[in-house]
Amino acid sequence: MKIFFVLLLILSMLFAPGCNQASEPEPEIFEYEIVTSTEFEQVELNDWYYQYYREKGQHQYFNDELGDVTYLLISYGKVPTAGYTLELVEELIEGDQHVFKVSLVEPEPDSMVAQVISYPYILLKIANQEGINVRGVLEVPGESSIEDTDIQPNTPLFEDIRGVYIGQSDSNFIEIDLDDTFEFQGLEDQMHDPMSFMLSDQAMEMLTFDDGAAVVFDFYLNENGSFVISNITSVGQTDTTMEIKGIYTGRIDPSFIEVIVKGEYQVFLYSMMDNDGVFEPENYSAVDISYMINEQHQNEIVTIEVADPPGTGTAVGVEMSGYIESEFEHGVMQIEGKPYWQAYELLMMSSRRMEIGKRYHFTYYTDGYGRKVITAYDLIQE
């Protein structure tokens, strides 16, 4: 009798509903991280962040130089005070979508917050997975969700490249004599003069200028290995004067100087031999330059003027900490290998000078010349 009951118990366990059924696999969640520092080494990524972090919506950025990752920036837009944040509340896989849902967190009614306009956002760095697309959703009570805006699958590898338009080689390709001052990092072996570029549909419609025109254009590498121009404009013929803002870093030799323009080092012809009493700015001065492309396709300076010292300004600041490694020029400090300018108002306060070898927590903004201007700082006691 006991044997009968034991057999009955075993059979009931074997045939019980669900005992032999495999459990449903949990959807795979791929690796990601929330980015807290917005000091990017890649200039294009840095420019993209500063272009979009104030624009309400979700924005994506990726290119081959970043590795196998996508940056997802979800921005709420303008709010009246500090204290607002975006919080990641849910991450999930929906079909072929890797979805990140965030929610706006408002400051407490009785909290003390700075009365300055701010732009809350959250920035995510996400590992790419084949067949999976990234999507951001911003949920705000009483508002519709913000998603699927400003997807940029063909972000240019290089932007604001200069050269001289030679002409069309066929219905889809053109030739450009490239400006020698640009450095195409990682593509040096593939760049030559003249260079052939494929035109996107948008760029094809913009091709309304004559052979010999000085042009500025953006391009990217497509899946077939072709360099594709996404945007191109004429800035006049080769004798047209153009204007830029930048940071003068010094003289390379008696004929050429170096200027940082939009984060990129560019070389300009500014000969000491051809100009008696040539004006020479101090290193790391912000400058306004007018120049032309000469017959040798060089950027030849016509005039150069030093800009006013930077002030505290009204731009939204970025917070950072770092050691003062050295002082390039008066008020221009090297922090973590990069130059930062102290605002004019701080330099006027002799008791508020930053000291070499000490670590500070500070706030800065980037002005129209590309100067990272420190507006406030505190010594970190160690």
Features:
single chain, 382 residues, mainly beta, OB fold (Dihydrolipoamide Acetyltransferase, E2P), 5-stranded mixed β-barrel, flat
Structure explained in plain terms:
The protein is mainly beta. It is built from four helices and 23 strands. The chain has four domains: 32-147, no CATH class; 158-237, Beta Barrel (OB fold (Dihydrolipoamide Acetyltransferase, E2P)), CATH 2.40.50.320; 241-306, Nucleic acid-binding proteins (OB fold (Dihydrolipoamide Acetyltransferase, E2P), Beta Barrel), CATH 2.40.50.140; 318-379, OB fold (Dihydrolipoamide Acetyltransferase, E2P), CATH 2.40.50. It is 8% helix and 44% strand. The strands form five sheets. The chain has a five-stranded mixed barrel. It has a five-stranded antiparallel sheet with strand order 16-15-14-17-18, with no helix packed on it. The protein has a five-stranded mixed β-barrel with strand order 19-20-21-23-22. The model is unreliable at 1-11, 15-24 and 144-155 (pLDDT under 50).
